[in-house]
Design a protein that fits this description.
223 residues, Heme Oxygenase, Chain A, mainly alpha, single chain, hydrolase, EC 3.5.99.2
Length: 223
């Protein structure tokens, strides 16, 4: 059986590369991103992370060994202790008000991406769940290291970059990639292809998550 991570990246390469070239990421790199857009992104991402964590919990529930349950459980803990704390600090320091939070509605793709993960969590096995989660880990790590080479003159953006380019996050990503390869190793060709498709869908949603945030999309239809 081929290596899952290598195959999944190859199948998603065009979408993967598009994430680095998105105007949101490029504006982060040079520090020109409008702070209003970043605030909106932070609120959307805090919403997304609830589903990201829920999918970990469902994978842990379905784990066939205590070691696997611990691995997914640790992912859940890392999500809420580290990433939600980061977003909590942004909410405070960017002066995002309770009124802003009360008025929040998830963007179309934030909503779809969250449901993509939750549906996998409810209906699929550990391998499929992790295939939907892995692009968030892996892509954010690579974008974090990419942005660390640029260092915009903005303390908020550098705080975000520091999190996703950190050694602890890279180690977490490495472990998840190794686990994904292990869980995919005994899959049939048809099952393996389904995992690749789930991974590619998440890479697409990662791109569209930037897109919704950058263009501040809501549920209106343009005529």
């Amino acid at each position: 059986m081929p290596n899952f991570c290598q195959e999944a990246l190859a199948a998603s390469q065009k979408l993967w590369d598009a994430n680095f070239n998105h105007p949101f990421v490029q504006a982060l790199a040079d520090g020109s991103l409008d702070l209003k857009i970043f605030k909106g992104y932070v609120i959307q991402d805090a919403y997304y992370l609830q589903s990201f964590g829920a999918a970990h919990a469902l994978a842990a529930y379905k784990a066939t060994t205590s070691d696997l349950a611990i691995r997914f459980g640790q992912g859940l803990v890392d999500t809420f202790q580290s990433e939600l704390e980061l977003h909590g600090s942004f909410i405070k320091d960017l002066e995002i008000s309770q009124t802003d939070l009360d008025a929040f509605t998830p963007s179309p793709n934030a909503y779809a991406y969250s449901n993509h993960m939750r549906l996998a969590g409810h209906d699929q096995d550990m391998a499929f769940i992790l295939a939907t989660l892995l692009p968030c880990y892996w892509l954010y790590e690579e974008i974090g290291h990419y942005l660390a080479e640029h260092r915009p003159d903005n303390p908020f953006y550098n705080r975000w970059i520091d999190t996703y380019s950190s050694d602890w996050f890279s180690e977490n990503v490495r472990q998840m990639k190794d686990l994904m390869d292990q869980l995919a190793a005994d899959k049939s060709p048809e099952e393996f292809a389904a995992l690749i498709h789930a991974f590619k869908q998440s890479v697409y949603y990662e791109y569209m998550f930037w897109d919704d945030a950058y263009y501040q999309r809501d549920w209106a239809v343009e005529e």
